[in-house]
Amino acid sequence: MPGTTIVVTNFYICPTNKKKIILVSSSINERDQMLFISTDEGASFQRQPLSFTVETLLFHPKEEDKVLAYSKEKKLYVSTDLGRKWTLLQERVTKDRFFWSVAGVDTDPDLVHMEMQDTSGGFLYVTCLIQNCSDKMVTAQFLGKIDENSLTVQDDYIFVKVTTGNRTKHYVSYRRNEFVQMRFPKYALPKDVQIISTDENQVFLALQEWYQTDTYNLYQSDPQGVYYSIVLENVRSTKQPEENVLIDILEVRGIKGVFLANRKVDGKVTTVITYNKGRDWDYLIPPAVDMNSKPVNCKPPDCHLHLHLRWADNPYVSGTVHTKDSAPGLIMGAGNLGSQLVGYKEEMYITSDCGKSWRQVFEEEHHILYLDHGGVIIAIRDSSIPLKILRFSIDEGRTWTTHNFTSTSVFVDGLLSEPGDETLVMTVFGHMSYRSDWELVKVDFRQSFPRQCTEADYDPWKLTNLQGEMCIMGQERSYRKRKDSSYCIKGKSFTSVLTSKPCQCTEKDFNCDYGFERAASLKSEGDRCFADFWHDPSSPPYDCVLGQSFFSSTGYRKVVSNVCEGGVNKQQSSKQHTCPLLPPRGLQLGIKGESLAVGPGDDITFVVRQEQGDTTNTKYQVDLGDGVRAIYRNLTVTDEPIQHRYEKPGIYRVTVKAENPAGHDEAVVYIQVNYEAPLQEVHLEVVPIAGRNKEVNLTASVLPATANLTVFYWWIGDNLQPILTLENSLITMFSETGNVSVTVQASNGRSMVQDTKTVCVFDQFEVIPLKFSKTLDTINPNIPEWRDDIGQVVTKILATVTDIPQESLVTMVKPGLPTAADLYVLPPENKSDKRNAPVDKRIATIKQTFNENNVSFIVRGGLIVLVNLADPDPGSGRGTAGPGVWALAVIFVISLVAVGAFILYKFKRKLPGRNVYAQMHNEKEQEMTSPVNHSEDTQNIIQGEEFIDDDLDSQTLGNHSGVVLSINSRELHSYLTS
């Protein structure tokens, strides 16, 4: 329309042909949007109206005329003629979660990966071809739903994540093979994962663990991206306004294996560098003089150089650190000298030997552009005011020349070089005012160089780390650079790498394997990798198949892409083993859609999963509870669904038994035909050992904590008739010895979840209270799995030291802090039925072992944890299976609490949500089901605040009314409906 002012909102440049540019523009009222398309680097534009509002464009990585466009209506469009004509590809696509095919990995260049929302509101990972991408033609590539905004396609890898309840699992597909769960250290418990790098057949990622708020830990993987080991802790992170997270780590381009990172420890941010992909890290050495050749007062170890590692919002303006593949060793960045990084100082520093020595070049931050393989460095001051001068250097920043690139000052929006690393022509993008037309200013430096360079114009230089070592990543590398006195063009034929020669392998060429880490605090052990307490190096991997073989790890693995030869081999002592027939473990039975409450006649799909053990040689017996039974083979491998329909209302006990010659496992789920939609999760807390005819407290913690009326169904053993309560705890007794299964279901009338535990019942046993070194509290995530693993470690060590059979000992770590435990000493098999057994000599042996400090283990960071008796003379006698006299006091307290809770309910009309866990010897401690939560309230959950009603005093013990209902399902239904 004549006279209409056009506002350019964004611009995109084809990565394979930078002459092709697309400007996204709109009118002042932002109602009409159009594209301006150029094929001659902005010299002329063709106007193309749009029928949708563009949020982002994505060029094809190989075919320059193919473009994807994402609209504000969550629709994805495709163009095969550089944006002149558009076709709707798919609807309900997640923003920034669509990817073109990857050359060399995907078979079809027209394939598109995307995350889309299905009709039920869940999110799926699907692919399709741009020629036909209707709902019927998309192909689901991941079985089941994924988390929103979790799909990432990068090089050989595809990543997704799945959250169930409050626990998230991350999955990876390597070179488009089946998805496999990513294996982090067992108690990393990730709150968030950010992919840093995926080149050279290895994944670098930043993982925020359960205890971190503004830092992440850096991990590296094996070539398949499955097993991860930590390489650097406490890397700083910042959260952007649109919930984007930026991690302060930068891969230095041009020389593989070099990374810069900013660590935040005790509030101080410092910059470190690695030359061997995270195996070793060092501080940056400060320059001796400033830009005016005056000495600086900055000496290690109290003072170093620190750099800001930020990315620019505009992809055509460099961030605070600039590197380039065609200019190896050349790094230019903004930062400061001192004991830590500060935000108010952004001086510019440069290195031409990959970080070994630095020089100051400016006192203010500048945007940087490299031309002619780094032979010319362009610098434009980062300023909010219009500019008309730039600076350039042809001697790696030692001297700078000022150049007026325009006669009228412009606001600089971006810098762009012509295609090819050898170019000496650049373009400045800018505008005269915020409402003016686009200004393109071309600057040509070719006239500054009279000739092409020859071999005599170059000097060699060898890459070394900060210690001067030349063997880096297993090889000595020699490069060449132009002499400062040579004014010539490097040109298209220039190559920077001169020679490379492999070195003999040393200890520094090996990193810690999965399940191992270095303990810097144990200096006497040298640079040794220790197995984490939860990891057994000799056990077969979870996916070990009968007949195949595996190697038991020595604790070390060669750094990926390291090319050293001969010398030290830290992996040579690994032994090859044949995979045994593994018994099924971690059998899980659920319903697709997660609901345990359904309506009569609803189609139900049962899903069986198995975390560990052999599946190909395992038989699965399924009983659906209404007379229908079936036997399956390879059930968890083929993901064959079990579909069923219940016609009559009621409660159905569905069981799956997995069995092979090595062992068996069983999963049970109770289906209630009547209700809808589940709660998130319920966690059952119960002591693992109980005495026959002794009172035991069962406690259920529900997520999310809710003030609504919740009914708890308790199944003891195989009894189909549950006990119903309106409180989340139940005191019960077991009349027979042996293993008893306890299941709890929580329902609020609209939803239902369940958990199951097994209790071993004996006539006699001993309980010995234990305590741990305080260092263990700092790494205690307060979740059941961690407590189980610590208990197993203590049991195993104690059995080894005392020669008492491990089957006779059970260590149960209690919830909460300080970390404490109870050691259960079970009766010998030949005495299990004797009521009046003689004094157990094992007790004296156990106490002496603890008193002599013979039970200890190593946890993360090399911390040594000592286990002692909680009391030098605990006085725990035989048969301490029940609370005894203390039960009366507890019942009295519970009664008082019940009266208080009833009064509060009458006046506040709201039940408090704190859950109380009662041990067998009547210690009540608050339980947290998991610190992992992907919301802003993660830390509150860790501290237990999620379970406290804000309306109640913090001393109130919670929602125990003391009422136990023993009514059948029909009576409950009448109660709920009334």
UniProtKB/TrEMBL annotation:
InterPro entries: Ig-like_fold, PKD_dom, PKD_dom_sf, Sortilin_C, Sortilin_N, VPS10, VPS10-sortilin, WD40/YVTN_repeat-like_dom_sf. It is a single-pass type I membrane protein. PROSITE patterns: PKD. GO terms for cellular component: dendritic spine; early endosome membrane; membrane; perikaryon; postsynaptic density membrane; recycling endosome membrane. Keywords: Cell membrane, Cell projection, Cytoplasmic vesicle, Disulfide bond, Endosome, Glycoprotein, Membrane, Postsynaptic cell membrane, Repeat, Signal, Synapse, Synaptosome, Transmembrane, Transmembrane helix. The chain crosses the membrane at residues 884-905. It holds the Pfam family Sortilin_C. CDD domains: PKD (cd00146). It is found in: Cell membrane; Cell projection, Dendrite; Cell projection, Dendritic spine; Cytoplasmic vesicle membrane. Its main location: membrane. Residues 610-663 form the PKD domain. Belongs to the VPS10-related sortilin family. SORCS subfamily. This is VPS10 domain-containing receptor SorCS2. The lineage of its organism: Eukaryota, Metazoa, Chordata, Craniata, Vertebrata.
